[in-house]
Amino acid sequence: MELHGGDTETAVMTYAASQTPPFGRALCAMVTPFTPSGALDLDGAQRLAEWLVGHGCDGLVLSGTTGEAPTTSDAEKAELVTAVREAVGDRVSLVTGVGTFDTRHTVELARSAEKAGADGVLVVSPYYSRPPQDALEAHFREVADASGLPVMLYDIPGRTGTRIEPETLLRLAGHPRIVAVKDCSYDFLGAQKVIGRTGLAYYAGCDEHNLALYAVGGAGYVSTVANVVPEQLRAVLDAFEAGDTPVSARLQQRAAPLIESMMAAGLPGAVTAKALLGALGLPAGPVRAPLRPAGREAVDGLRDAYERCVA
């Protein structure tokens, strides 16, 4: 499958039709389970990964924002990839976050991810330092050159302070290992511009955009909410693929209150996802500081939204 270049029609058809994007369509931004004492819970990670794959996920993204990557060590990130790979085998794609504010460190993590058995790396814009676009482009190219793994760029300016501008993405699309974008830019027009002019696989990184981005040629989603309702979110894409747009729209609308409760009610997604997973008896454990667990009122509200979504 050609991933780079091509005209608008080719790029849209590649992912809106029935072909397979580079990492699958329904990807979960998986939480990183910890033990009650805060240690990495590899057994819990394996059990959660198995559950997610068994309920519709065809890709898992480890050590991202929802995976609390800023608070896990380099060794823990590698151990997590190895453990989850052991649990799920080759049934699904494993992408792991390697992005930091330091190019050298990011390169090291990319090489470590390759050794640990990842299928791809998620690379966020360097945060805090806010590099200009030429430096940002050079950073991504150096990371992509550092290993043999395909790269998913992570555009989330609300957290990093730096947008990957569409013109920068158009240039980066020519790199043979830069194949995808996780889009949290909230620039729907900019996303369509890049989708229409490149072969980059665009994944919605904000659950409220899952169907909308897919409908204009996106590849699928990388979802925090999929930690708790993987089947329901997968059904949105399946209905659209089957040509039943009204059903896919209704399913997306049905998930919207839970998406709002988990992602737009004042608590980080890692907190809300772990709160719900714990309430459902699935592996999660506590969050690591500086995050704090959800309070009882918040958990009750999340559980109510969940019950309405799955009813």
TrEMBL record:
Binding-site positions, pyruvate: T66, V222
Protein known as: 4-hydroxy-tetrahydrodipicolinate synthase
Catalyzed reactions per annotation: L-aspartate 4-semialdehyde + pyruvate = (2S,4S)-4-hydroxy-2,3,4,5-tetrahydrodipicolinate + H2O + H(+)
Role played: Catalyzes the condensation of (S)-aspartate-beta-semialdehyde [(S)-ASA] and pyruvate to 4-hydroxy-tetrahydrodipicolinate (HTPA).
Keyword Amino-acid biosynthesis: yes
InterPro entries recorded: Aldolase_TIM, DapA, DapA-like, Schiff_base-form_aldolases_AS, Schiff_base-form_aldolases_CS
Cited HAMAP family: DapA
Annotated Gene Ontology cellular component terms: cytosol
Pathway(s) this gene product operates in, as recorded in its UniProt entry: Amino-acid biosynthesis; L-lysine biosynthesis via DAP pathway; (S)-tetrahydrodipicolinate from L-aspartate: step 3/4
Keyword list, A-Z: Amino-acid biosynthesis, Cytoplasm, Diaminopimelate biosynthesis, Lyase, Lysine biosynthesis, Schiff base
Primary enzyme class: lyase
Active site per UniProt: Y154, K182
EC code(s) of this entry: 4.3.3.7
Site (Part of a proton relay during catalysis): T65, Y128
GO MF annotations in UniProt: 4-hydroxy-tetrahydrodipicolinate synthase activity
Family, as annotated: Belongs to the DapA family.
